[in-house]
Each structure stands twice: as C-alpha cells, then as structure tokens.
Amino acid sequence: MNPFKAVKNLRLRYIIGLSAIALLATASFITMQSVISKQRGFSSLVNLAGQQPHIVQVFEVGTATMMAAKGAVYPIEDVMNDHGFTLDKNAFLPAVISYYQTPEGKLLSMPFNSSTPVMWYNKDAFAKAGVTKVPETWDEVETAAQKLVAAGYDSGLSFGWQSWVMIENFSAWHNLAMGTRENGFAGLDTRFTFNNPGVKNMLARIDGWHQDKLFQYGGRRGDSLPMFINEKCAMWLNSSAYYGGIKKQAQFAFGQAMLPYNPELIDSPQNSIIGGATLWSLKGREKKDYKGVAMFMNYLASPAVQAWWHQETGYVPITKAAWELSKKQGFYNDNPGTDTAIQQLNLNTPTPNSRGVRFGNFVQIRDIINDELEAVWNNSKTAAAAMDDAVEKGNKLLEKFEKANK
User: Fold this and answer.
1) Beta strand pairing call for 233-239 and 155-159
2) pLDDT tens-digit map of 212-226
3) Tell me: the pLDDT tens digits for 226-285?
4) Torsion on CA atoms 5, 9, 10, 11, rounded to nearest 10
5) Residues ≥6 apart with Cβ < 8 Å to 14
6) DSSP 8-state code for residue 45
7) In the chain, where the domains are located
C-alpha cells in the first residue's frame, strides 16, 4: 500500500526517499523567508483561505513567535499521536528537543536542521605557525592568532552568525543569563541582560584584536566562510553544519574543536545551544491530510535518515538512535571531530541559562545586535555602549511582543 495514498491532496508532496529532504528544505525555507522578510505575524498563515502550507520551516529563534500564533499551530506531538504514531520523546537528544517543548513538555515542532557553533581550524596553518595545541581558552586563541599573523596569515580568527555565536552561545557556554525569566522560557515578561561584564569584556577584547588584525570581521551569517576556505584566517567560529561545504572546498587539512572559554568566568564550559530550524504543522487543512504529515515526520526522524543527514551536512542527529547508528557505521572514527557538536550540546545538564533562548521578535532583535556589533568593528562604538544600546532597543521589542500576546 502506498503510504501517501491518504494524503494525495497534501500541498507539500514529498518524494519518499532522501530527495524529500532537499525538497523540503527548499520549499519550506522559501515560505519562512517570505514571512520573515515581510515581518508579518506568523498567525497570519492560518488566514490564507485554506492555502497555508501543511508544514513550514522556522528559525529556532522564531519559536516564541510561533507559540504566540494562537490557533495556527498543530503541535507535532498531537499530529503524531492523533494519527497512530508513537512519539517517544526520550529517544531524542535532550539538548535538541527541550528547545521546542512547552513548559509542560509537549513537543511543538519537529527538529530538522539542528546545529551548534564549533571552532573550525586549519591544521596546516597551525603546523606552519608553530601552534602545537588546539586552543581551549580565549587566552590560547589569542596566542595562536599572534603566531598565525606572524606566520603571514591575514588574521587568526573570524566568526559568523555573531549574535548566535558570541552572545547567545557565549552566554550559555559560560552559564551566563542572556535574559530574565530563564531566557524567556518562563514567561513573556522576559528582558535582556546580556549587557553584563562577561559579554562586554569579551567583545572589547576581540575589538582590540581587530585593531591588531588578530581578528577580522567577515560579515553576518556565513559570509566569512571564504576567509577560512581561502586561508585568510585559520580559526573560524561558526555552525557545525558547514562541515559538508568545508569538506568539499577546503584544500587543506582541517579540524573542529569545542568553543573556547574564559576560565575567569567559569571553571569549565557548561554546554552550547542549538541553532537551525524546526518543522511546524499548521492547522486549517483537511483532517485526512495530517496522516501524511505524521507519516513524513516519522520518516524524517528515522535513524537511517537522520544518520545520513548528520553525516552529509554536519547538522546533529536529532535522536540517540541516529547517533548510535553513526557510531556503529564508524563515521566518527573515519572523520575525527565530527562528533564535537554533539559532545558540546551534551557536555552538562542544561541550566536555565544554557537551555536556549525563547524571545519574541528575536529575528528583528538579532538584526539590532548585528547592527550594534558592526558599530564596534567599524570603531563607531565601544563594546560596552553597543551592548547597552542593543539591550535597550531589544527590550522595547520584547515589551511590544509581551503586550501583543498577553
């Protein structure tokens, strides 16, 4: 029996097999980008006269906004249970699934492309510059950067997705609160606190490196990847999901290691947090269609599919079974360091400061943070002033979100 017979009218018709993932990533990302770029409320998706997609892919930072879209979302846990599929939440990696659960533990969306930032490094450059130890602390990063610049490299360090890497994950890694109310998980009345000495001092230090060319800013998101690929910098902090691209493009031996930490802030690192996106199901289509949604989600979470996706891309496997399958297949032995992201996420039991972030309007707030950080890199502001301004502007958007969704 064709498992998709019951859902022949499903708008998102995916070809069973691995090609379905590529189609999903393309179609749903377009939907997501269209909604975000127009800054429309996600709740408006439910008012599209029956033409809303059954599945939409949304940034992890859009979780609070999706939760506030009352009447629009059909929680994935309910989709699965209502259509005869057992959803064993204990089968998922805790650091991944907890980000998308209600305070009561219900899974709202299906994790899909989940990653965490790591430190990518150029092994050949390290050997040339005499860097004999992969840096674990920020002091060691500075020393390595000095040696790399002295050896002729344009810079030692760069990073991308700077809010995610240098504020959200830096805070979690050092068990620092980014905001009140458990970073937004405990209530809409959360407010930002990332203008603390730990964050300000770290950014001020990097700004000093910027002046000495130990660090170079290469743009938002993944814009600085060419700097690493073209050996303009030898250390790059960004998503583990760049594995596929780096493996294909790099003409040098590379590795990945855990994020550096500051021993003055914490004795040893706490845990990193995820980024990426999840798949949400929207209400408003024919009831029988959701059998297909449940079938597809069940397929997507299967160990074989998740192991393949993880090994090809660098995104983390969302289930323990997929992780174990990758071990059994010898992937980590054949590709040392590719389990770094998983180790970081599972390093310690998450605290209220390191579970993740759940802030309303956070897509727009990230743009504010980017603007303020770029003002630091172009010498328009000090790191302290930039963080104070980012918090002030960000809190205004949090207040607006709270009032709109009480």
Assistant:
1) parallel
2) 999 999 999 999 999
3) 999 999 999 999 999 999 999 999 999 999 999 999 999 999 999 999 999 999 999 999
4) 150
5) 20, 23, 24, 296
6) G
7) 5-115+274-345, 117-272+361-404
Domains 5-115+274-345 and 117-272+361-404 equal at CATH topology level? yes
What are the tokens at 133? 């130890």
Classify the C-alpha dihedral 346-95-57-393 as positive or negative.
Answer: negative
DSSP per-residue letters across 87-153: --GGGB-HHHHGGGB-TT--B-SEEEEEE-EEEEEEHHHHHHHT--S---BHHHHHHHHHHHHHTT-
Reported in sequence order, the residue ranges of 198-272 that DSSP labels E, i.e. its strands, are 233-239, 254-257
pLDDT more than 70, % of the chain: 88
Residue 50: the pLDDT is 64
Kindly list the distances between the CA atom of residue 211 and the CA atoms of 135, 208, 214, in Å, as whole numbers in the listed order. Answer: 21, 5, 8
Assessment of whether the complete model's pTM goes beyond 0.90: no
- Residue 330's CB is within 10 A of a number of other CB atoms, namely 9
3-state class of 3 per DSSP? coil
Element (H, E) at 234: strand 233-239
User: Count of CB atoms within 10 A of residue 205's CB?
Assistant: 16
Measured CA to CA, the distance from residue 274 to residue 113 in angstroms comes to 10
Architecture field, domain 5-115+274-345? 3-Layer(aba) Sandwich (3.40)
Q: Torsion over CA of 20, 21, 26 and 31, rounded to 10 degrees?
A: 90
CATH of domain 117-272+361-404: 3.40.190.10
- Residues 126, 234: contact at Cβ < 8 Å? yes
Gyration radius (Cα) of the chain, Å: 21
Alpha carbon 388 to its chain centroid, in Å, reads 24
> Token pair of 174, please?
């050092």
The residue behind tokens 């008012």 is 47
